[in-house]
Amino acid sequence: MVNVLVVEDEELIAAFVEKGLRAHGYGVVWVRNGREGLERAAGTDISLVILDLGLPDLDGLEVLQGLRERGGHVPVVVLSARARVADRVEGLNLGADDYLVKPFAFEELLARVRANLRPRGQRSAGTLLHVGGVHLDLLLREVTVDGRSVRLSGREFALLKAFVTYPRQVLSRQELLSMAWDMDFDTRTNLVDVYVRYLRRKLGEHMIVTVPRVGYRLRDEPGAVAGTPPQPFA
Ligand code: CA
Q1: In terms of domains, do 82 and 169 share one?
Q2: Cα–ligand 1 centroid distance for 190 (angstroms)
Q3: Residue 225: inside a domain, yes or no?
Q4: How far is the CA of 9 from the centre of ligand 1 (A)?
Q5: Which CA distances in Å does 101 have to 82, 88, 106, 112?
Q6: Angle between helices 154-165 and 173-180 (to 10 degrees)
Q7: Closest-CA residue to 210 (of 202, 218, 222, 201)
Q8: Which residues of the chain have pLDDT under 70?
Q9: Centroid of ligand 1 to alpha carbon of 191 (angstroms)
Q10: Which residues are placed with Cβ below 5 angstroms of ligand 1, an ion?
Q11: 200 part of a folded domain
Q12: Cα of 53 to ligand 1 centre, how many Å?
């Protein structure tokens, strides 16, 4: 059974989400406040979290931050009445995998839940990508770097996939935003830079090269030597 944790204080919305998810075969755990949400989200039985932002005690963004700081990789779909772009970007910055603005149709939520759950099933040809020492399995969402397995959040995976899809190319922040976040507006935020930093931390600092004033590219030599020269414009 795939269990979804619903962190939502509004009973009508929680009941609506729970009923719909159960009808589609998901197990549902419902908690009404942020503190419990943070505790339950870390549980190994939870496959995905639907997280409201306006919550009693801990705010949804604090729950998200706490979860990621503790190393929790569970996919998080943020559910919120806050439609402002700044809130959306903040949520994504803090490690949300997806964002849905209230009011929403259940089918919309279901589509996000499905998209953000790790696909299960057989490997098939055409789902493996690799550049240099980096291997991606698109179906299982598994990543190895020089044979070492690396766990990535949904958004980190999407960003790495963009790099691996265009090997040896320098990708601008705008191109990366559009590929990994589906955002086409010209944003002045540092979303891409923040996630490049996360990826470097997990893959190795030298794996993503900063190209001053242009963007980033993936280093494509296997087992590339650590220790990038200082980047004056990074
Ligand atoms: Ca609420």
Answers
A1: no
A2: 28
A3: no
A4: 5
A5: 7, 9, 12, 12
A6: 120
A7: 218
A8: 82-85, 118-127, 185-188, 221-234
A9: 25
A10: 9, 52, 54
A11: yes
A12: 6
> Which long-range contacts does 182-185 make (Cβ < 8 Å, 24+ apart)?
185/85
Q: Is residue 50 part of a domain?
A: yes
Task: Give the DSSP H/E element, type plus range, for residue 173.
Answer: helix 173-180
Ligand 1 center to 98 CA (angstroms): 17
How many A from CA of 54 to the centre of ligand 1? Answer: 4
Environment class of 86 (CB within 10 Å of its CB; exposed 0-12, middle 13-18, buried 19+): exposed
Structural domain boundaries enclosing 77: 3-117
Do 154 and 205 fall into the same domain? yes
Query: Ligand 1 mean position to 55 CA, how many Å?
Result: 5
58, 36 Cβ separation under 8 angstroms: no
How many domains would you assign to the chain? 2
Output the CA 51–ligand 1 centroid distance in Å. 9
Look up the pTM and report it. Answer: 0.53
Q: Are residues 108 and 131 in the same domain?
A: no
Separation of alpha carbons 98 and 85, rounded Å:
13
The pLDDT of residue 188 is: 66
